[in-house]
Amino acid sequence: MRIAELDALEREASRHLAGHIPAAIGLRHSIHRSPRLGGEETETRSLIEAALGVTGVPVAEGMYVRVGPASGPSVAVRAELDALPIQEKSGRAWSSERPGAAHLCGHDVHAAALAAAVMTLSELEIPIGFVAAYQPREEVMPSGARDFVASDEFRSHEIQAMLGLHLQPALPSGHISSIPGPVNASADDFEVRITGRAAHGAYPHRGNDPIVAAAAIVQAVQQLVSRRIDPMTPAVVTIGRLRAGDSNNQIPGEATLGGTVRSYHEGDRRFLQAELGQVARSVAGAYGCEAEVVFSQGEPVLHNDPELTAAIAAALEDDGAVQAEPFRSCGSDDFAFYCELFPSLMIFVGVGDGHADSPGLHNPAFAPDDDLVEVLARMMLRAYFAVVRNNPQLMFDQKELHA
Which of 27, 210, 325, 402 lies in disulfide reach of 255, CB 3.0 to 4.6 Å? Predict the structure, then answer.
């Protein structure tokens, strides 16, 4: 296959895609009406299999589907299956019918767009494989991405590029951010259990107050980033939970803190974990208490591959996408696990309207328009052909490439 033939095939794919959009939007509505939380996504997987008319290869509660050549090199695209444990308040006709669960992070759009791309490419004689990775448990631990990268079957597909697209209200509609290097932070959760000695609130001298120790620990850990990390390097320590006591007039025997540590460098990640534990134990000791710190290792830093980013960004811009100001955040995504194994790229796709009070990700009212299904599907196809075109060793004889 020569470049002219590949160009013609891409144009044909674009024409075929239009015919699949109504079915993909219908799939989006079905997924949105019946959201499943992390670890419960088998029904969502079944909805997608029914829409595609195939049985996927199961990976945990998710699956993957390959179209094109059954073996050899491939390009993979990840979409997430899980919803959030939040009550929807969007008012859409296709709102969630399951109390306390809703798709409020765009996963329904991602999944439907990927289905449209699969439907399209399955009708064509494409030069290398296209693997649709429908991943469970992006929002919760244990990570669904870890299941995929641990799967021998999934890794056997000679994945040359791993792609993710994610709606992002922080960016204007019609804009994208696809930039090289780190774009999301590592994320590790922790719990601090502070043990003191219970006493009556009227006789504090007879106890060792774990609440006072907890308050001091909350204050002390704030200096870890502000005074121990290079200010040019993003890092965050947040305490999001504090629990202690059952009575207004009792000093409890125990208090617990919970939080998250985010960073952009592995060295900072290790440093913050070690120092947070040391600070918590030392401060608790100063108040006559003991502290035990337990970390739950989460996602690593999400790194976009520079060469892959350059190739796909150029192709998307040629197709009319506008690069926004580079978007990086201390948010996290388990797509980072793929980045450790394959050349990978996460593309943020703007859905913002410029109003500060507009619903963002995880907001009960977040329900982006259906036209984004086609927008993302076209980007997925464009990215697939960009990878093939910019890696001619995958399919071309170099001597015939431009013949």
Answer: 210
3-state secondary structure of 44: helix
Distance, CA of 379 to CA of 363 (rounded, Å)? 25
* Helix, strand, coil percent values for the chain (each to nearest 5): 40, 25, 35
The Cα 56–Cα 136 span in angstroms is 14
Contacts of 27 (CB under 8 A, 6+ apart): 47, 48, 51, 111, 112, 115
Digit-coded pLDDT (tens) for 265-287: 999 999 999 999 999 999 999 99
- The span from the CA of 337 to the CA of 348, in Å, is 17
Alpha-carbon gap, residue 80 to 57, rounded angstroms: 15
Q: What does each C-alpha distance from 28 to 63, 296, 368 come to in angstroms?
A: 17, 33, 11
pLDDT more than 70, % of the chain = 96
Model confidence pTM above 0.90: yes
Residue 185 to residues 221, 231, 332, 355: CA-CA distances in angstroms?
19, 15, 5, 26
CA dihedral 362, 332, 155, 164 (to 10 degrees): 60
The kind and range of the H/E element at 62 are: strand 62-67
Note the Cα 10 to chain centre separation in Å: 28
Find the radius of gyration of the CA atoms of the chain. 24
Burial of 265 from C-beta contacts in 10 A (0-12 / 13-18 / 19+): middle
Strands (E), 232-343: 235-244, 250-251, 254-263, 290-299, 302-304, 322-323
Q: Which position has the token pair 């144009």?
A: 11
* pLDDT of 2: 81
Angle, in degrees to the nearest 10, between helices 371-390 and 3-33? 150
Tell me how crowded residue 309 is: count the other CB atoms within 10 A of its CB.
21
Instruction: State pLDDT tens for residues 34-77.
Output: 999 999 999 999 999 999 999 999 999 999 999 999 999 999 99
CA distance 301 to 270: 13
Pairing of strands 62-67, 57-59: antiparallel
